[in-house]
Design goal:
It contains no helices and 25 strands. By secondary structure, it is an all-beta fold.
């Protein structure tokens, strides 16, 4: 069965929900929505950050506060001085992640590669041979976690891989339907969005302890979850609902509220 999610059509980050966390005291949420990037204050007040993109997907901030946005076949960089093209010639970049040294990792869904870019934009292939990488997240030791399943949906097809800083791959978890967004909380727990099958059946958010044990954090049987996922400094989770055009906020205990009314794909909090 073909996968329901294709780049630039499924809205889960407010159009394409990408959540980026900002400072520990006043984090703003950045969301890719339609052809725009929107921002939300902690109180849920929305403003437009950027207009006129093609179909923005993954979002990531570096430690200097620069925002990187995956859009169509390119990655754009937003600084206080404006927008520039950071990389081009890609084949459907989705998830993005920045490490402590300022390197940017990009999940290129069309090629099945993970690319690594230096802060100066020099590209190398960090990993290849994946089916269709979607979500990326880095742990405190610099290990890169990748969800892989974009080509087809089916029980057991989706994987989460772990790559060491030098690119050695192991399977961290398997048996998912369509794993997508990833994010770490401050305690080192890894959260994973599984979007379920083409009808959303089997959708859930899973939690992995630092030791790797898995538990179900939320069963998404009443809304259409993913693919974006973001965690703020208080360890609240934010995810999009692409059926009802909302962004939900989950407390660390799993209590859900509606944070904002909007269609989205990917989310990110500004550092």
């Amino acid at each position: 069965m073909k996968k329901r999610y294709t780049p630039f059509t499924r809205a889960v980050c407010l159009g394409a929900i990408v959540i980026v966390c900002c400072s520990a005291t006043a984090q703003n949420l950045f969301v890719s929505a339609g052809s725009d990037i929107d921002t939300y204050t902690p109180a849920g007040v929305r403003s437009t950050f950027a207009l006129g993109l093609t179909g923005p997907q993954g979002l990531a901030f570096d430690r200097a506060g620069n925002l990187f946005v995956a859009d169509s076949d390119a990655i754009y960089k937003f600084t206080p001085n404006g927008r520039s093209t950071f990389a081009s010639g890609l084949r459907g970049p989705l998830g993005l992640a920045c490490d402590k040294a300022g390197n940017l990792f990009a999940a290129d869904s069309g090629s099945g590669n993970i690319y690594k870019f230096t802060s100066g934009g020099v590209r190398s292939t960090f990993a290849s041979g994946l089916d269709g990488p979607v979500g990326l997240a880095l742990d405190g030791a610099g290990n890169l976690f990748v969800t892989d399943s974009l080509d087809v949906v089916g029980p057991g097809h989706g994987h989460v891989y772990k790559f060491t800083p030098v690119g050695v791959r192991t399977t961290f978890a398997a048996g998912f339907i369509s794993p997508e967004g990833l994010a770490f909380d401050s305690a080192g727990n890894l959260f994973l969005v599984d979007g379920g099958d083409i009808d959303g059946l089997g959708a859930a958010i899973y939690k992995f302890s630092p030791a790797g044990s898995r538990s179900t954090f939320v069963l998404a049987n009443t809304f259409c979850i993913g693919p974006g996922l973001a965690i703020d400094s208080a360890n609240n989770l934010f995810v999009p609902d692409w059926c009802f055009g909302k962004i939900y906020k989950f407390t660390p205990g799993g209590a859900r509220t509606t944070f904002a009314q909007s269609g989205a794909n990917f989310l990110a909090f500004q550092p």
